[in-house]
Amino acid sequence: MIRVAVAGYAGRMGSAVVDAVTTADDMEVVCGIDPHGTESAGTFPVFASVAEALDAVDADVLVDFTQPSVVAGNLAMALPAGVDCVVGTTGLSNETLAQLAADAAPGTCLFYAPNFTTGAVLMMEFAKAAAPYFPEAEVIEFHHCNKKDAPSGTAVRTAQLIAEARSPRVSEAPGRETEMPGAEGARGALVDGVPVHAVRSMGYVASQEVIFGSLGQTLTIRHDSWDRNSYMPGVLLGIRSVGEREGLIVGLESFMG
Amino acid sequence: MIRVAVAGYAGRMGSAVVDAVTTADDMEVVCGIDPHGTESAGTFPVFASVAEALDAVDADVLVDFTQPSVVAGNLAMALPAGVDCVVGTTGLSNETLAQLAADAAPGTCLFYAPNFTTGAVLMMEFAKAAAPYFPEAEVIEFHHCNKKDAPSGTAVRTAQLIAEARSPRVSEAPGRETEMPGAEGARGALVDGVPVHAVRSMGYVASQEVIFGSLGQTLTIRHDSWDRNSYMPGVLLGIRSVGEREGLIVGLESFMG
Amino acid sequence: MIRVAVAGYAGRMGSAVVDAVTTADDMEVVCGIDPHGTESAGTFPVFASVAEALDAVDADVLVDFTQPSVVAGNLAMALPAGVDCVVGTTGLSNETLAQLAADAAPGTCLFYAPNFTTGAVLMMEFAKAAAPYFPEAEVIEFHHCNKKDAPSGTAVRTAQLIAEARSPRVSEAPGRETEMPGAEGARGALVDGVPVHAVRSMGYVASQEVIFGSLGQTLTIRHDSWDRNSYMPGVLLGIRSVGEREGLIVGLESFMG
Amino acid sequence: MIRVAVAGYAGRMGSAVVDAVTTADDMEVVCGIDPHGTESAGTFPVFASVAEALDAVDADVLVDFTQPSVVAGNLAMALPAGVDCVVGTTGLSNETLAQLAADAAPGTCLFYAPNFTTGAVLMMEFAKAAAPYFPEAEVIEFHHCNKKDAPSGTAVRTAQLIAEARSPRVSEAPGRETEMPGAEGARGALVDGVPVHAVRSMGYVASQEVIFGSLGQTLTIRHDSWDRNSYMPGVLLGIRSVGEREGLIVGLESFMG
Hints:
The structure is a homotetramer. By secondary structure, chain A is α/β, with parallel strands linked by helices. In chain A, 30% of the residues lie in helices and 26% in strands.
């Protein structure tokens, strides 16, 4: 039984983590951490800080979905104490992550992932693997109207991975120069030479399609998600994987295949 | 049995028409027409002009997939003689078509269609019908790398049909202003307010997707084609339909539903 | 301003109706009806029965998303009083609906729809319209694992509509006889001659794809939904449409295009 | 410059190989082999047997797309002579392949692949890689009406690969027991526990979709092909890869990533 402490247990992501850990057979929530209140949620004790929590309970893993302002302090308490950390909170620089990992007790792992959705991570891994075999590649992402920037960070990252992995041979796909007058943008945004198209509609949550083509064939990899619960299998995978690893590990793909 | 004369019978489209008419149970090729040679193809006589053909054989319908320079002359012979015409040759103005139809014998039909692919025509009809019920609509077209302009004429026409049919209520989808620096074009080309995206790959022939969205739902209409034979059901539909119609008719949708 | 009374206003669907009507510019909720309690929700009065409601407030339309056991009684009060009814509650036979409509005051409309999702209704209408032009048609539906029957009612209904609308010409698609030993079911369920396939996954809410094919082309119509809010545009369309209609009307398609 | 001999050079696949090799910058056709005639195709000599060919020209690689009755003899000549072989001809047992490879000169490679389409091979590799992370997986294959069996060999193989790779945890997807009376087959064919659905239409050549699902997310991998040229990048990859390998190698995936 993996003993899990959940920092930010009462937040949107934290409470989903609590539910997922509670439901899993091989792990349990041993405490929640919340500086704003230590009222117990009923099934586990709650502490105001990681320090207090580690004094009181025995935890194997700290899961942190909190705020940029508090995550570094949490990790600085847990890692030297030999508690593996699974972190989804963004905002830490690579340097800070490396420094925190360097201060960890031997055998302790700091795992950070910008994206815990297994399917999205696999989509990017597959795009990287397919890129050398197809001259043409384009990315289409589909998001809800409330998304304020285009294209999405995942689409940009996917295009960059494709650009790094593909053969230097130039694709034969025509570009912006073929756009008809008044139809600028038809060929999308070029991200490192890969066209990226962004579709917006109230009918989507978050989807992405990567299309590879060569003569007479098309390979399409698509990911659709519409629920933050889609993060949870990745969080559980992180919790199960850190026990056997050490040092700083970045990206869920490190634990996949 | 509908008696069909085929102008341009030896060309790429014409020979496909000959095959399709020959295969159909309810029609037959009674002659081919080709100014460059009158050698018989074996199963039907060939004439150098429509005039000669109509003198020699009895035809119900003339199918014309020829050249802009000859089509008007062909129709000017056939229509006054009471022969219905099914025309896929482009280049005739609306005025010329109307004049040719005006000179037709009573009960004779001049049918012209810019696109004979049943699925593409239905895609546009359905897009028009769906537009009033969805705030968001975008068009993605997929073509082979050898296509020299973007977006395709069908995509532009589809966007225009959507713009005409949709409610004046402004879509909530964010536009070009949300494109990140260096990612101009991500939100596509705006055609009458409808974003249109063009994907190019050696892996496609001609495909198009129209995506409609409202809260929590998406309706997608997609057409794929990779063979000029996909024109033939539309040509046969035209041949079967002109007998019961009169005057100028434009667009395959006139005979569909 | 259309004045709307909402029976079952506190239920799952009813409260979504209240939200949608409140948000719309051209209508308002004038009362809720709930036999289990008449505590006001704050912005409108609540009555224990339709009779009491109609005594107290002036309503143009009654929306009923209640139970099979109460809907008939509600309609029997509202229709003779000249209140148009928009009904999503299932369980009323065609005979009962016809009888209720016959007792309505002149100029009053009883509108019942088994499905208020605009996209799903259009998918079926488009399938019906496309069927005559394609020899092959198949239906694939995708639902969450908790769906207890296969195929879905919408898929069966879609297949029946296709079967009624298509030409009697037999499709050339091979059937169950081509299934390899041990792979029975590969060609799906035959519903009136149309193959229907059901996919189940925790990754879906409710999606369906209708695929039409002829030589060298494919026309695909797909609907995805993952939120009961996708019903609401259809309910508002019903509310806006009943005022100009009379008698029994069944199916949202009656008000679309 | 890789020197390539093409057995069956005049056949459907062989002539496509000749075109592809000729077009590539880093290889050339040094001879064709055809027992039925040795008339030169103009740009390279033709021999009646592999033995005669190897006597006359210096070849690095023999590509064999011939018949089950002749392939073993061809390989038995080429491999002991130190010529690497790239084989797409089916019908050789694993035992025969192993024996032929055992008789090869040192440093010589016998490469056999049942499928040379890069995209189809990647689809299967990706399905294998994704399987451990998703409780639900289903396969849908789409082929032309002239396909005489269902499901396709590729679909069956994909399902087997998923079954081997996935966790033993039972999927929550309901099965055949949820099929409604008269709708047997809706849930597809079960291949090692993975539902497989086969769609048939004149509108397809060969496509396949693998759908993985977990709570709130779907990962879809799709491959479409409509031209035998889609085999050629895989054949060229084989020709380029055998020089650095030795012994029997089966499957294009051996050379991919």
